[in-house]
Amino acid sequence: MLYSEQHGNPEGKPLVLIHGWGMHSGIWQTLIPELEADYRITLIDLPGLGQSANFLPQPYDLDAVIRSLVEAAPESALWLGWSLGGIIAMAFAQHYPERVSGLITLGSSPCFVERSDWSYGMDETIYRQFENDLAGFPAKTLQRFNMLQVKGSAVARSDLKILKKIISEVDPTTQGLIDSLSLLRGDYRDLYRNSQATSLHLLCELDTLAPAAMADALNQLQPTAQVQLLAGQSHVGFLSEPTVLADKIRIQY
Question: Max Cα separation, the chain?
């Protein structure tokens, strides 16, 4: 089974937080104190990552990941997914709509890898090199990824320090990193087009992995959703400014 934790007020509003690639639920350590008085928070480590590192469904694909979340998740909750976690939260809402009362994505993208008709992703050549490096040099590859996550931020140094600490708390397995990375190659635009969940998509002004320039494209994919910009924030801006994200959550739910 997946590893999960409960935090906050047992009588509070249910909230599920889903981390992104290469990370684990420790990524929420600065956000939880902002929310624990009012929310019953469920943290889940995704298959192959964090303390779920040895849980590797075969084949490792989006459907298998979604099915694995069912037992760990509350019966109904607001879901917030960051980065890859945003795609996973959206897919869970599509498969189990009765269990998702609302949906927030943060720094997430329908396509993390560039396509001929989608210019807001990582260049395919760079992504393929990233895949190759991960197999041989996982620690160095994660370090490179962390640099991308903090790029452009005025507090990049302090955020990078937090990221390194989070990673050091639970040693990732190379296979878990490789399997979960494969999900970032997918084209998930149909998830947005077909989503019936009440949705808020938060983009970060300085994000290089899920660039804010795709805001109009998201509006076209899912006209019923809200798309908002977090000014001055990188992909991991919530580490240093958790109050900004906490306020968005309270407004939504």
Answer: 49
